[in-house]
């Protein structure tokens, strides 16, 4: 029973101390040994329960295994030993929770260590080891240890909000759920060249960038980076600014369109006038030709009449006539022939007089 070694000798020390008066006849060396034993075991009996933590703080990466050390010392038997571990999370330290309880600790004497497997960020906080071994009083009987769980940044969430028209204002926001130590958030514009943007932190895990009076140069790919000792996580936003057409270029397009329509209308007007004039000339020529044809008929009638008159003249020539009648007939025939020649010339030219 080595675990109870100290407790067994306490009672023997008491008996030896009580028998010192009866051993006064013994030698001085024997009396000195017995007196030392008496003082030692009396002091050991009066020592209260003590709890010590070999480490005051521990850091471990998320997912690893960690041992939380707790040692205690007691002079009483361990038959009524109780060990309780509690956790006060960093997120809510005012609400501690019990994580371990044992009323008969087996294994290594004077040790109340516990092991945490597959650690998570939620396991971080203040751990308290409380040891109770009645009837012995604790002094203080409680040990504390701070456990930190290191974790890389979670994948950030990128968002944008605002007016993407020319001259508007756009806000880029980025947030992460977890990361220990607290990750540093950074915004960069990647193209056409990489530019770091000033950021407004909104708490420990969120940051935003506000861009005012946006232009076409604002368009591009933006990256949010969350970085700590364990790594970096990124998210991206592709921002496209809507550019309205230039007023001067629009005015120029309107002028060109107006000129084009004017030229088309002018061409149509010239075509209509030409067709109208062509139709009039064709109608006049048709009328003129008909008139010439009618004149030819008249001319033929005149020729027939002339032939008749010539026959009559021949008959009269056979008979004696006066000189004046003959001259008039010849003159009339010449005038008729000239008029006929002039009219034929006018019909061939096709021009009105």
Characterization of the model:
The chain is an alpha+beta fold. The protein folds into four domains: 1-46, no CATH class; 49-150, Immunoglobulin-like (Sandwich); 157-239, Immunoglobulins (Immunoglobulin-like, Sandwich), CATH 2.60.40.10; 264-349. Helix content is 37%, strand content 27%. It has helices at residues 5-18, 28-46, 247-318, 323-349; strands at 50-52, 57-61, 66-68, 71-73, 82-89, 97-102, 114-116, 125-132, 142-150, 157-162, 170-175, 184-189, 195-197, 200-201, 206-211, 220-228, 231-239. Strand 14 and strand 15 (206-211) form a beta hairpin. Helix 1 (5-18) crosses helix 2 (28-46) and helix 3 packs antiparallel against helix 4. It is rod-shaped, with a radius of gyration of 65 Å. The N and C termini lie far apart (157 Å). The model is unreliable at 1-23 (pLDDT under 50). The chain crosses the membrane at residues 251-275. Keywords: Membrane, Transmembrane, Transmembrane helix. Residues 49-148, 153-240 form the Ig-like domain. This is Ig-like domain-containing protein. Pfam families: Ig_3 (PF13927).
């Amino acid at each position: 029973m080595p675990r109870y070694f100290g407790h067994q000798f306490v009672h023997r020390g008491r008996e030896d101390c009580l028998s010192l008066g009866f051993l006064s006849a013994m030698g001085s060396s024997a009396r000195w040994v017995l007196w030392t034993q008496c003082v030692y075991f009396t002091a050991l009996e009066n020592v209260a329960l003590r709890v010590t933590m070999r480490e005051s703080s521990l850091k471990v990466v998320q997912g690893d295994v960690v041992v939380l050390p707790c040692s205690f010392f007691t002079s009483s038997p361990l038959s009524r030993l109780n060990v309780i571990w509690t956790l006060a999370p960093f997120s809510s330290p005012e609400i501690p929770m019990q994580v371990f309880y044992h009323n008969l600790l087996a294994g290594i004497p004077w040790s109340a260590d516990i092991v945490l497997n597959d650690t998570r960020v939620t396991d971080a906080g203040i751990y308290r080891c409380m040891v109770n071994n009645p009837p012995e009083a604790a002094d203080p009987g409680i040990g504390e240890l701070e456990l930190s769980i290191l974790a890389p940044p979670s994948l950030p969430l990128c968002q944008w909000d605002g007016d993407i028209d020319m001259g508007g204002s756009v806000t880029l926001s980025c947030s992460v759920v977890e990361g220990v130590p607290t990750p540093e958030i950074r915004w960069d514009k990647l193209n056409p060249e990489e530019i770091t943007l000033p950021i407004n932190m909104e708490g420990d895990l969120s940051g935003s960038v506000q861009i005012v009076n946006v232009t076409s140069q604002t368009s591009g790919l933006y990256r949010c980076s969350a970085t700590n000792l364990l790594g970096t996580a990124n998210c991206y936003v592709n921002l496209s600014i809507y550019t309205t057409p230039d007023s001067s270029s629009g005015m120029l397009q309107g002028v060109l369109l107006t000129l084009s329509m004017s030229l088309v209308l002018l061409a149509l007007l010239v075509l209509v006038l030409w067709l109208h004039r062509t139709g009039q000339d064709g109608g006049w020529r048709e009328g003129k030709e008909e008139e010439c044809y009618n004149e030819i008929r008249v001319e033929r009638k005149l020729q027939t009449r002339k032939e008749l008159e010539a026959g009559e003249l021949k008959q009269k020539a056979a008979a004696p006539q006066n000189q004046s009648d003959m001259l008039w007939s010849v003159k009339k025939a010449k005038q008729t022939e000239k008029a006929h020649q002039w009219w034929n010339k006018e019909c061939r030219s096709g021009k009105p007089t």
